Here is the input.
Amino acid sequence: MKEKPILYKDIMVKAILAGNKTQTRREKGLEDINENPDDFVFFKSGISDSGKKMILLKDTKGKIAVYSNSPYGWIGDRLWVREAFKDTDDIGFVPDENTPRYLYKADDYMNEWKGWTPSIHMPRKASRITLEIVDIRIERLTDISEQDAIAEGIEIFDNTEDGTFDLTNPDSYIARDYLDNDRYASTDNAARSFLSLWQKINGIGSYIKNPWVWVIVFKRVM
Here is the structure.
C-alpha cells in the first residue's frame, strides 16, 4: 500500500467530511492523450500479470495507450488530503485540550483570522483525512452519470412539495450552480451542477474540450 497527497478545495473537504463525496476526477497524468482527446476511445481494461488493473485506450490509427498506474496510486492505495490550514504554533497560540494544534479553513473555525496556509504546503502530520482508493478508471469528463455527479459531492436541494425527495429520482431534486454568486442558485440536474463546479475550479469553458480524466472512487478511512 502506498500513500500519496491530494489537494482539495474547502468546499470539497466539507463534502468529504459530510460523507457526500466518494469520487474525484483528475486530469493529471493524461496530458498526452488530452492534447487531442477526440483521437482516443476506450478499448478495454483488465488485470496485468503483476495483478494490477490495466486500462487501454486506442487512437484513430489503432495504437494502444496503456495505463497501469495513476499519479494518485491504484486500488488499495491511500490518499492523504491536503487542505488550507493553520498551525497554531506559528502564531504563538498554545492549544489546550479543547483546541487542537491544527485548524482547518473548511471548518469555518475562527475564520476572522487571516493568513491561512495554502493546501499545497500542508505536511503529512497536519492532515486529518485519509482516503482509500476502491476503484479507478478513465473516462471523458462529460460522460459523467447523474449518480456519479452526486458522488462527486455536489450540493443537492429537495425539489418536492410532498416529501418524496429521492436521490435516484432526478425529478425530485435540483443541484447547486457553482458559477452563480447566489449561494442557492441551481440547475436542474447533478451532472450540470458538477460541470459548473469543474469550471469554478478549473476555469470557465474548461470542460468544452471534454478531456479524459481519472475517475477515482474512494472511501474515507480516517
About this structure: The helical segments are 10-17, 31-34, 146-151, 190-202. The chain is about 15% helix and 30% strand. The mean pLDDT is 93. The domain at 3-83+127-143+204-220 is CATH 2.30.130 (Archaeosine Trna-guanine Transglycosylase; Chain: A, domain 4).
